[in-house]
Design goal:
This protein has 14 helices and eight strands. It is mostly helical. Helix 4 runs antiparallel to helix 5 (about 135-155) and helix 8 runs antiparallel to helix 10 (about 260-270). The strands form three sheets. The chain has a three-stranded antiparallel sheet, with helices on one face. A three-stranded antiparallel sheet has the order 6-7-8. Strand 2 (about 15-20) and strand 3 (about 25-30) form a beta hairpin. It is elongated. It folds into two domains: about 70-165; about 190-355, Intergrase catalytic core (hpI Integrase, Chain A, Orthogonal Bundle), CATH 1.10.443.10. It has helices at about 35-50, 70-85, 95-110, 120-130, 135-155, 160-165, 190-195, 205-215, 220, 260-270, 285-295, 305-320, 320-330, 335-355, and strands at about 10, 15-20, 25-30, 85, 90, 230, 235-240, 255.
Length: about 350
Amino acid sequence: MNKPKVPTYGHHKPTGQARCYVNGKTVYLGKYGTEESRIRYGQVVAQVVGGTTADPFVAKPGAPQNGPTVNELVLAFMRHADQHYRKDGKPTSEIHCMKAAIRPLVELYGFNPVDEFGPTMLKAVRQKYVDSGWVRKTSNKSTGRIRSIFRWGVENELVSPATLQKLKAVAPLLAGRSEAKDNPARTPATAKQIEAVRPHVSQLVRDLIDVQRLTGARAGELLKMTPEALDTSDTVWLFDVDGHKTEHHGHSRVIAIGEQAQAILIRRMKKLKNQDRVFKMRRDSYTTAVRRACQKLKVEPCTPHQLRHALGHQVRGEFGLEHVQATLGHADFSMSERYAKVSIDRAVEVARKIG
């Protein structure tokens, strides 16, 4: 079912009023740029997305209320987020995702009191994501990020618990039941794709491709590898990833490295110090190098992440799902230390045969 797009906040210069268009009619919102016009605009958008008719003749700016506005809540949260979403002293990608999710919220409802923000307003923000071309999963995740801001507000006594409870009632967009598009399912990189790309990238990128396809490591994990982080005491090496993606959940991540990958690492580490990175490259540069090679060759584009999927596909066929889980680091966070040890043993078994 197609929903109407979110109307745009505009300026009617002859009268100095803010306006938007709903069903072909002009809705005047009050003096352009004022708090009252912004509040009225947000109310109209909520009506449009909620399926009710916006009355173009009745202004409903809403009387000022006590308590913080959405703008004030967002500002307080971002001060917290700038410290919270950090790893090794650097901002994580989540802080950028948060900022992108917040922009439509502030644009539509920044001047509204936080406890006026309800389900139809949250759906209006989500519709902004969809109108901007965001895929369904990203729209759902960003909607969840908005809820997390209000959850933080409850925790810090800036938002009423009843407000958060109402926002939880907004169901996620479902596949095939909304206008939001879905990305095509990711498929593993094929051997043909990999072999076509390898001769057309630098030695550094080629080594990264080979080690990633042999170990199933995430690109970010390999790019932080140092000689001192490797346990080379056995025939299969172990790389204990410090500060990996799921560390904050209390989950350990150990990558097993077999003989073929070891040979590449030995060559790369000949002149390195213990603290030096084995692969001195940024993740986005790695991704760009692979994609450009695909474009140059006019082959189906692939990403470094698909190399990980390629190994997972191979391991699933030769060993089974539990070995995929162990090799790619998808173990359940609630599993015991005993299960973690079993996972490492399975990863070593895969590395001994494949890597």
